[in-house]
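Comment on the following before class.
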Amino acid sequence: MTEPGAPKAPLPPGWQVVHWHPEAPPKPLEGAPCNGCGLCCLAEPCPLGMLVSRRRTGACVALRWSAADGRYLCGMVADPGAVTGWTRPWVVRWQKALARRWIAAGVGCDARLQALPPA
């Protein structure tokens, strides 16, 4: 057991720590339908997320936790106006359609990630 405040051992290469909502569903198997676990978007933004987050690493800024649904949602699909600030109805419809296409909504989990509980 380590003392509080003691330096932590570095992570192995290719590993990273993400802060996952405790009520999030478990990550589905690759190819299985998305269940909103959010792990992929917490690890790194997709190409659309890179545009709205303006970064290539870290959690996507468009990722939203839905307490009502008990899962993560892509803000660019659920409420793109809140993510981009563009709220005209035709622009919102366009953003939602584009987001669904870019994130491959409904295609299945493509995240080659493994979730491990905290030590």
Strands lie at 63-66, 71-74.
